[in-house]
Predict the 3D structure of the following.
Amino acid sequence: MVDRMADDPEVAALVAGALRDEDEAARELVRRLYPFVARMVRAHRPKRAAEEDLCQMIFIKIFQNLGQYSGTVPLEHWISRIAINTCLNQIAAEKARPELRHADLSEEQVAVLENLAQTSDEIAPDQRLASRDLVSRLLDTLKPSERLVIDLQYLQGKTVDEIRAITGWSAALVKVRAFRARQKLKAQLMRLEEGHARG
Amino acid sequence: MREADLQRLLRAAAEAPDGPPAEMPFAFETRVLANWRARRLGEGAELWKFARIFRRVALSAVVVTVCAGSAAWWQFQADDDLDSPTANAYAIADTVIDAGTWQ
């Protein structure tokens, strides 16, 4: 939705209106951007923060910095950056990264784990939700930056260039962080499999 | 655990259907805008406070400069014999400071 907003003159007019302190333009901008911001928050929300509070915090930052938006980068990249940085700061403030144990997994997640261990076939469509839950739990054990790079690259399917634009990291840093994150995920999955084998 | 297994898991997670689209809470935009404006006013108030302090400091500096200038003018007008150090309070102060510095 916001991808289409990037070159949307209507959105550009709303941004200009909000900058002129026009109430209705600012309200409409919030309404238009809300689904995109909420999706970012859902993907990167720290455990103890409420989605609505985080969205509100992000929107206030967007409005506070709207005057600095040059329009040279797509609006969604600019907003992504604010949203992601806000979420990362919150995650960093929470600090705790719990270790995932086999006993914490649901039956469906254990079934995904078995599937991974026993076959090399693609995971069945009916196990995709459980796969996403399992990945989400695994991501909770990573550092915020590693979590972010896996989410952007593998779950949202962004290219290295797009991740660079969103995060401000260099291409090499994106690759290094993705590599380290994958190593950690593999190690975590191995521990879970060992836990499963022990019963 | 092989790299391929992790990639399979990540692919499956990426292909999982999205949840229902996020619905904006009631009056969310009103809360956001009210909060933003309150903060902006707060920032404006801070700037205004700083400007007031700056103006007072500047005014005090002008008053001190005018007083010092007037005193100097009065001193020069009152004493004809400016060459004599004992007749010029500024010259006396200058001599004392010089003496203190070079001791």
